[in-house]
Amino acid sequence: MSDTPEAKPGAPLRIAVIAGGLSHERDVSLRSGHRVMNILKHLGHTVVVLDVDARTIPSLRAFSPDVVWPLVHGGHGEDGGLQNVLIALGLPYVGTHSDGCQRASFKPTAKASVRAAGVRTPDSVTLPKAYFSQLGAQDVLGVVAGHLGLPVVVKPNQGGSGLGVSYASNADELRTAMVSCFAYDERALIENYVEGTELAVSVVDTGDGPRALPPVEVVSQGRYDFDARYNPGRSEYFVPARLEDDLLHLVQDMAVTVHSTLGLGNLSRTDIILDAEATPWFIDVNVVPGMTEVSLLPMAANADGDLAGLYDQLVRHPAVRPQPHNVP
Asked: How far is CA 301 from CA 17, 210, 247, 255, 269, in A?
């Protein structure tokens, strides 16, 4: 289904989309921001895209938006910091309160929280880079491999888009994976590898409670890394996923549980692996999902029926509405 917008009822809004920043996902963020801007403009809204720099706060004050849509991906866009700035400015925004951002952004915290809610997630350990020099890299990796077994997946404590994520099936690959991970974060999450079907389940809330969109099944040539995500040709997508109805509902329910457990707001995307025994495993959750032409939430929203209509509802029902006040 096309995402070409149709006119929607209601007064036009002044919307500031914040994108870019200095993370490794800057380019993806800018693509997300401009795509959202174009759709909202066609709906009749007045929209600007603001980069994250020394002009952001003055620009927000000068533009005086009715609502802000932060679309900065990666650690500094999803860890609650940018959201706290918007709260301090008294600006309503699409997304999640800073508290929920912090719970979801730090992968070990998110895993521990959803595990306590009864959601399966692979066993893991999280280690800071400093331990490898203090305790000896070879000994630490030996202990980790002995505890978890191999293969494992190594990923940065924060961040998305598959950056710094590696698969390791032996000691040499594990060492290489750690080096790659530490290029993106000072802490590494090492978790058991689960083989199976890769699914992405987006959850939206426009004021009536969270609901899951159709799950997206991802089939990629090789690992679903950054290149496979954003360069067409390496990945194929099935929306809805090629699952029986009971499994579709099962993974949708899991995504809603993750969303609710972590206290998320308008949007989230939960990544799930469905293993050979049809057991779903929580892998990660993203509170600022990508909105590019190849991103998974827009695919799911189009399959659900109306991407532009969803965007319109999101800006008209932002999850976070701080009390406005004068900021010097």
From this structure: 19, 14, 19, 15, 12
Give the alpha-carbon dihedral of 219, 271, 310, 62, to 10 degrees: -120
Are the beta carbons of 259 and 203 closer than 8 angstroms? yes
Q: Tell me what pLDDT residue 328 has.
A: 46
> What pLDDT shows up at residue 10?
82
The DSSP H or E segment spanning 248 is: helix 245-261
- The DSSP element (H or E) to which 98 belongs, if any, is helix 98-105
All residue ranges of the chain with pLDDT < 70 are: 1-9, 159-162, 222-234, 324-328
Using CB atoms within 10 Å of the CB of residue 116, give its burial: 0 to 12 exposed, 13 to 18 middle, 19+ buried: exposed
Q: Is the pTM of this model over 0.85?
A: yes
Cβ(29)–Cβ(63) below 8 Å: no
pLDDT value of residue 132: 84
In degrees, rounded to 5, the angle at the alpha carbon of residue 77 between the alpha carbons of residues 72 and 78 is 120
Spatial separation of the C-alpha atoms in residues 278 and 24, rounded to whole Å: 34
**pLDDT for 230:** 53
pLDDT of residue 228: 52
> Quick one: which H or E segment has residue 28?
helix 26-42
Residue pointed to by tokens 């917008």: 5
User: How many Å apart are CA 97 and CA 287, to the nearest integer?
Assistant: 10
